[in-house]
Each structure stands twice: as structure tokens, then as C-alpha cells.
Amino acid sequence: MSGQFVPITPELQEYLTSRSTRRDAVLADLAAETATLGWAQIMQIAELQGSFMSLLLRAIGAKRAIEIGTFTGYSAISIARALPDDGYLLCCDISDEWTSIARRYFERAGVAHKIDLKLAPALDTLAALPADAPPFDFAFIDADKKNQGNYYEAIIQRLRPGGIVCIDNVLREGRVLDESDIDLDLLAVRALNDALPRDPRVEVAMLPIADGLTIVRKK
Fold first, then answer.
1. What pLDDT does 3 receive?
2. In angstroms, rounded to a whole number, what is the distance separating the alpha carbons of residues 176 and 113?
3. Which residues of the chain are under the pLDDT cut of 50?
4. Would you state the pLDDT for residue 182?
């Protein structure tokens, strides 16, 4: 143990995951199908991440949730299953190809009735919501990184006090530490990472789950 942390090996990651969730046939099949998509498979969240977010949703009694970036549906199913039967999940994505896989698995998982999938730029979908729409209890941001700060700002205004936002890929495979790396996606991620601890509206904890997951609680 060094500096109050334990380096995570693949074996230790499997140990953590296997003791944090009940393995699920639907999600296992979805993960296997997503793995056939070539390079795009890296956009699927980790199994441990899905279990953790489900626990968070149940802990805060979430009924309304929003997801920016649905891909093939693993995170959406993890979120929707944690909502009550009359819960609501707004999924925002722009790919009919990838979300067509998600739709099939929504049905298999028995959560399709909770999910409203909008195929349009997420900022447009958010802007089109009625001003008097009920606030969200939970949000998950996992889409194009250049807009990560814009997504956060649009969502935090529609989040109830005590609501939670989870932001994915905040470590960018550790590249956040390399100041010489000026990739635009990385710059946007780093900017939001730096801004969140100074945002007086929220409390923040960044966790080393998968590629880094920031938990934001609105005060």
C-alpha cells in the first residue's frame, strides 16, 4: 500500500467487480455483443461502474434520471433498473445504429417502459424541455468530451437539491496529468475537473473507477 491507495491489477479489478455485483445474463450478453463492434467497444462503461451507479440511484431514491450518451445501453439499463416501476430515464444520443442495439436490450431487461430515447444533440434535447418540467434526481454524462462542461451546466440547472451527477472518463487513461497533451477533448475534461471543486453549488468526489468517475452532489 502506497500513499493510501492500492494499485489495481486486472486480477484485483475482477475481485472488486465480482464482489460488488450479482452477475447478470442480460448485461453479460449486451457486453459480449458490444465487444464485437471493434474500436467502439471502449465506450461501454465498466461492470463495476454500472453496479455503483445503480446503488447510488437507490440510495437517493431517484425517480427521474437523464443520461447523455447511451451507446448500446449498458449504463441505461443499470440506471433504469434502479428506478421504481413508474420511474423515468431520458436517454440522449445521436446514433441510431448503436442505440438500435440498446433498444433490443431495454426490452430484454424489462425496462423499456421507463426509457425515453431521444436521437438528437443532447444540448438541443435539454433546451427543448419545458421550463416547468420536474427536476432530475440523477444524471450520467458520458458523451463527446468537448461538450462535457456544457452538459454539466445544462443539467445542474435541472437537478434537484441533493441530486447526483456522475461524469465518466475524467482521467482519460491518466493523460490528465500530462500538461503537454493539448488534445481538445482532454482540455475540456481537464477544465471541468479543475472547475468542479470551485463550484459553490456542489460537493465533489473523483473516484478511480474504470477511467475515472466524478460524483457531484448538488447542495
1. 67
2. 39
3. 1
4. 87
Q: Are 176 and 170 in contact (CB under 8 A)?
A: yes
**Number of Cα atoms under 13 Å in the Cβ half of residue 12:** 7
8 Å CB contact between 125 and 92? yes
**Burial grade of 183 (CB within 10 A; 0-12, 13-18, 19 or more):** middle
Helix 47-59 vs helix 25-34: crossing angle, to nearest 10: 130
Q: What is the DSSP string of 179-211?
A: TT---HHHHHHHHHHHHGGG-TTEEEEEE-STT
Alpha carbons 36 and 53: distance in angstroms, whole number: 25
The residue among 160, 168, 157 whose CA lies nearest residue 129 is 157
Q: Taking the mean position of all CA atoms in its chain, how far away is CA 107? A: 20
d(CA 77, CA 114): 10
In the block, cell 467497444 appears at 41
